[in-house]
Amino acid sequence: MSRITSTFATLKSQGRKALIPFVTAGYPFADVTPELMHAMVAGGADVIELGVPFSDPSADGPVIQKAGDKALAFGIGLVQILAMVREFRQTNTSTPIVLMGYANPVERYDQKHAKPGISSPFVKDAAEAGVDGVLIVDYPPEECEAFAADLRAHNMDLIFLLAPTSTEQRMQQVARVASGYVYYVSLKGVTGSGALDVGAVEAMLPRIRQHIQVPVGVGFGIRDAATANTIAQVADAVVIGSKIIQLLEDQPRDQVGFTVQNFLKEIRVALDS
Predict the structure, then answer these.
(1) 60 counts as catalytic
(2) Positions of the chain with pLDDT under 70
(3) What DSSP assignment string belongs to the chain?
(4) Apex CA 272: angle with CA 178 and CA 268, to 5°?
(5) Of 240, 250, 249, 241, whose CA–CA distance to 270 is shortest?
(6) Of 60, 110, 125, 150, catalytic
């Protein structure tokens, strides 16, 4: 059982919902991410999503794009991110970590670190660093069954996005290879792009659960405790990203962890109430 599966099982037994914050690795300061991850856990995070900065994102809105550009300017890539995960794991061996990004950095990593007999150096190195799941925005499920199997062999999960436009066929394709949880994108558009339609989410989740057996997290557009609480009534997890990035934008180095911890505490209270 992966750490992600174990975490969701524990939360379900407690009648609680997962809080999954997202931050771009290497933002807003190159060396702050491990400290920030510990602050998120202290604030009530159950799973942490680390964004892998990429020069040409397709799902990220302006807020996360800007954070990714800054992280890239700091020289942050997968090598540095895996080092961040290893540092975090020195004192936290229980909180699941998901890397969220695009195909290009992963495939480039495999090219640069290719070794005989290893199908994916990225998968091997991520597992050794302590990564628990991978969400590759532009990997369609029908084209990555081997990748999913390789991850599972290393006790990691492959997580997929579903959207308001996802068809029954797409849900069935995702169901065949997804593990850990699926991430339902509650809005048409990019991250942070509009107001959340709670009614539409409530209508969509039963359709998804007809096909998907793993937990369903909802993200894109959740910005406050009240909305998080409402979404948690129907979802298994609440994912918050753009709002956290915005909160960090102008913070001095010594306030980064404190700011995120306090924000997540409010969300955690709302989810548990």
Answers:
(1) yes
(2) 187-195
(3) --HHHHHHHHHHHHT--EEEEEEETT-SSTT-HHHHHHHHHHHT-SSEEEE---SS-SS--HHHHHHHHHHHHTT--HHHHHHHHHHHHTT-SSS-EEEEE-HHHHHHHHHHT--TT-S-HHHHHHHHHT--EEEETT--GGG-HHHHHHHHHTT-EEE-EE-TT--HHHHHHHHHH--S-EEEE-SSSSTT-S---HHHHHHHHHHHHTT--S-EEEESS--SHHHHHHHHTT-SEEEE-HHHHHHHTT--GGGHHHHHHHHHHHHHHHHH-
(4) 75
(5) 240
(6) 60
Tell me the whole-structure pTM to 2 decimals.
0.95
In angstroms, the CA 150 to CA 121 distance is: 11
Q: What is the pLDDT of residues 3-19, one digit of tens each?
A: 999 999 999 999 999 99
d(CA 217, CA 235): 6
The residues near 247 (Cβ < 8 Å, ≥ 6 apart) are 259, 260, 263
Return d(Cα 159, Cα 140) in angstroms, integer. 11
Catalytic residue among 31, 46, 49, 87: 49
